[in-house]
Amino acid sequence: MEYLFLILYLAGIVFGADHLVGGAVSVARRFRVSDFVIGAAIVGVGTSMPELTVSFLGALKGNPDVAIGNVVGSNIFNVLGILGLTAVLCPIVIDRRNLKFEIPLCTGVSILLTLLAFNFFNGSNPSVGRVDGILLLALFAAFMWVSFTRDRKDISLTVERVEETVPLWKSLVKVVGGLVLLIASCDLFVDNAVSIAKSLGVNDAYISLTLIACGTSLPELAASLAAAFKKHTDLALGNIIGSNIFNITLILGLSSQAAPLTTTGITLLDYLVMIAAVLLVLVYGLRGTIGRVSGVLMLAFFCIYNWYLSTSHLA
Question: At what angle do helices 49-60 and 218-229 cross, to 10 degrees?
């Protein structure tokens, strides 16, 4: 029954996130917010809401390994798992403009998180404290400001367009209802997943890097696969890179304000795999595309990493 409930909670996460994003887009359109702002801010942050909820609740409940492991694991799954699968279905063409800003920034914040987590700058015990979180939130604000000012061309959405005839009250109900369902489902999901993991003799770090991370990345997976089937692979790449930036800067920035995140189970290798995954995208970007063979290799790396986790993160 615990596994059945886990599946139901995952469904609630996806359903809640979908309604939250759809309602927010409808409200934004009614107030004539541009496509760029909707795509960059609302959709991007919306698909990262499950990670935000799980990590923030993990921090509040005194499970820092869940808070950080969810972000690190999600970022690894986003790149190696989701982008790898997307590339297998349809090769991904990488826009040269992304090589000048988004992909390097994603690489930079991944490295910065590793340095902050291991307190490279002050030499104390490994943790992401409140001051570190303020720095990450400042980077998030800077990223959003630069994104809004550097290019205001319309971009396609990863969700269906909403007709302007939709009543405002219905859109607001979708936003509030989706947010409530998302938070409740994530709360129950975390509790159930940790309970199952501990009954199997597995620690919080392992379950957060695998099951929770993959579960909270389902909105990104759905959006990326839909984009691949529609031949809009640039949307898949943008969604993943943007989500990874949000995960580190916004989610861990907010979570560390709830409680300092002192980690014990997330190892340096986990952080290095996260960095290597983004560097792999940067290398492929110099070639201009992520082909099917490259996608298969990314999926293989993801499987090898998870095999390693299964043998090293047992309690």
Answer: 170
Tell me which residue of 108, 114, 110 sits closest to 127, measured CA to CA: 114
Task: Supply φ then ψ for residue 262, to 5 degrees.
Answer: -90, 115
Q: Which tokens hold the place of 89?
A: 């279905």
Residue from 272, 305, 264 nearest 84 by CA: 305
DSSP-based three-state secondary structure for 177: helix
Residue 302 three-state SS: helix
pLDDT digits (tens, 9 = 90+) for 206-233: 777 777 777 777 777 776 776 677 676 6
Please give the Cα distance from 283 to 34 (Å, whole number). 32
Contacts of 193 (CB under 8 A, 6+ apart): 6, 207, 211, 212, 215
* Dihedral over Cα of 277, 83, 41, 96: its sign: positive
238-252 residue pLDDT tens: 778 888 999 999 999
Beta-sheet strands, E only, within the chain: 92-93, 127-128, 261-262, 289-290
Contact 67, 59 (CB under 8 A): yes
Per residue in 122-167, pLDDT tens? 555 667 888 889 999 999 999 888 876 765 544 444 444 444 567 8
Token pair of 19, please?
Answer: 């309604």
Cα 284 to Cα 288: distance, rounded to the nearest angstrom? 6
E-strand stretches of 81-184: 92-93, 127-128
CA dist., res. 252 & res. 114, Å (int): 12
Cα–Cα distance, 246 to 52 (Å, whole number): 9
- Dist CA 253 CA 230 (whole Å): 34
